[in-house]
Amino acid sequence: MIECMTVGDMIPTNAFFYIDDTTQHGFLIDAGSDGDLLAEHAEMRGWTIERLLLTHCHFDHIGGAEDFSIRAGAPIYAAEDSPRYYSDPRWNLSLWGSGSVTLSDVTTFSDREVITLAANPDVALEVRYTPGHTTDSCIFYSARDGVAFVGDTIFCASVGRTDFPGGDEQMLWDSIAREVFTLPPDTVLYSGHTEPTTVGAEMARYRR
């Protein structure tokens, strides 16, 4: 089961619950700006969130992370290059946004690491690093369910901005070609700020 909640006033951001129907355990991908609201929703639904996974550490994706982690008891995970973002309000853009946001207790994962659900190891997400929007950007891919949570790497009919600290346009397109467009065409892409799309639909836009 995948359930999206869009949270945030300044920049509405999609947070995704990826839940195993059998055990009602799962992951939260990104935390928007309201961790308490997300935690309340998980509690109401009777879900146990084992980990909070971050696609990258801009403020609109991590603002609610600490509150959610504390309330839900879910540790926070992000890419190996994430400390430069989550520890620095200039890099995570929170000084430009709603105030200083930092995180202090984050575990890192590596490229191609497979993150499995403790309650059901058949439920797993493969980490694929996709630098370009930020240096710590990544996507989470489930071959079993044919889905990928892509953060701000790629959207429906658009791609991530590269004019922020650490951004690189050529690196972004290389990441998309290597890590997104090599997925099966019917893979559903769940992004941080738009409606879902598919690999095939986005390849058709850009590969003329």
From TrEMBL:
Using the record's annotation, list all stretches that form the Metallo-beta-lactamase domain: 12-193
Checking CDD domains in the record gives: metallo-hydrolase-like_MBL-fold (cd06262)
Q: Name one GO molecular function term.
A: metal ion binding
Signal peptide residues on this chain, from the entry's feature table: none
Q: Which InterPro entries match?
A: MBL_Glyoxalase_II, Metallo-B-lactamas, RibonucZ/Hydroxyglut_hydro
UniProt keyword terms in alphabetical order = Hydrolase, Metal-binding, Zinc
What does the record give as cofactor? Zn(2+)
Q: Which SMART domains match?
A: Lactamase_B
* This protein's name: MBL fold metallo-hydrolase
Q: Which organism is it from?
A: Selenomonas timonae
**What phylogenetic lineage does the species belong to?**
Bacteria, Bacillati, Bacillota, Negativicutes, Selenomonadales
